[in-house]
Write a structure and sequence with these properties.
With 316 residues, the protein is an alpha/beta fold. The protein folds into two domains: 6-37 and 98-300, 3-Layer(aba) Sandwich (Rossmann fold), CATH 3.40.50.1220; 40-93, no CATH class. It has twelve helices and seven strands. It has helices at residues 13-21, 31-34, 43-53, 66-79, 81-92, 101-108, 122-131, 179-185, 191-202, 215-229, 254-273, 288-300; strands spanning 26-29, 113-116, 139-141, 156-159, 205-208, 241-246, 277-281. It has a seven-stranded parallel beta sheet with strand order 3-4-2-1-5-6-7. Helix 10 links the parallel strand 5 (205-208) and strand 6 (241-246). The longest helix has 20 residues, at 254-273.
């Protein structure tokens, strides 16, 4: 691996590697990774298509935030529920055209389990391939046994916002996308919220291909932070969180460089306020640089065994 990659300059890199080696960490996977297979839409493009088929006006804006996308999904859902569900089924209840290699590589790393907010079955299929099984025993979805924290082991997969399962009837009502979906799933006493609170508070987590800008997710981090402040005498024991993100800073002229540096600092501050350490890598499109990094880790973990030995050679 090219040592010039910015990730190796991060002050958090060595500790990130230690966390992964610990065999106690959880991998949290966002929609960015599924887009590497060229089969599934980005969130904005999905919402735009839902608005088109449900006859909802979509703003002429390429920078809609998460709250706006959730509201537009709600409008589409209310306007034409049948077309809304048909579109989600068409987009996600299908195999990836090709399995993004990063999914296979992630299962070669000693993560304890895998959480995702994606609907597509890519992570599910990667789990089946890795475990060499034909059933869904290792996969949990919203509305079933998903919220059982005792299953956070043995490389189980948790579909937090629902799964467009290839092997069973499509259940549109179990996919969390619209405003009402989020309100129901993240209400105060809901098991999903309790489950994520437990994970974020007590487990080290590494975030891949996500932004964590949804307000319900942010509130859970805020609740964890508030709870941890009440335990300030034990602060050093809090499990760390890391998010891998591309750098904003590319080879640009001086005026643009300053603007990108400010933008990057502001985003770093957002995650640090949530208690998440930011680890930046080179800004190569389509997550290919992130895949190279994970491949490097997997290659160095080739002697790693299924017993979750803490002697894995993972490192730089």
């Amino acid at each position: 691996m090219d040592g010039s990659n910015r990730i190796y300059e991060s002050s958090h890199y060595d500790n990130l590697v230690k966390v992964i080696k610990s065999t106690n960490a959880i991998a949290y996977i966002g929609s960015g990774l599924s887009q590497m297979g060229k089969t599934y839409m980005s969130w904005p493009n999905l919402v735009k298509k839902l608005c088109d088929v449900c006859n909802v006006d979509y703003p002429d804006d390429d920078n809609l935030d998460e709250k706006e996308l959730i509201m537009l999904s709600e409008e589409a859902k209310k306007r034409d529920y049948s077309s809304y569900c048909d579109t989600l089924k068409q987009e996600f209840a299908t195999r990836p055209g090709s399995m993004p290699r990063i999914y296979t590589l992630l299962f070669q790393l000693p993560f304890q389990s895998y959480l995702t907010t994606n609907f597509d079955p890519t992570l599910h299929l990667a789990s089946i391939d890795y475990n060499n099984v034909k059933d869904d025993a290792s996969v949990s979805t919203f509305g079933t046994q998903m919220c059982d924290a005792t299953r956070l082991e043995n490389k189980n997969v948790f579909y937090l916002h629902g799964l467009a399962n290839l092997h069973s009837e499509f259940e549109c009502e179990k996919l969390i996308l619209s405003k009402s979906d989020f309100e129901e799933a993240y209400e105060e006493d809901h098991t999903l919220k309790s489950f994520l609170f437990t994970v974020f508070k007590y487990k080290p987590v590494v975030f891949f291909g996500c932004k964590l800008k949804e307000e319900p997710i942010k509130r859970i981090f805020d609740a964890c932070k508030e709870s941890q402040l009440k335990m300030s005498d034990r602060k050093k024991d809090f499990p760390p969180k890391y998010i891998l993100l591309p750098s904003f800073i590319e080879k640009v002229n001086e005026s643009e460089l300053e603007k990108e540096e400010i933008r990057e600092r502001e985003e770093n501050n957002y995650y640090e306020e949530l208690g998440i350490n930011v680890v930046r890598y080179d800004p190569i499109p389509d997550f290919t640089k992130l895949e190279e990094i994970v491949e490097d880790w997997a290659e160095q973990s080739s002697n790693y065994v299924a017993s979750f030995s803490d002697q894995s050679p993972l490192g730089r």
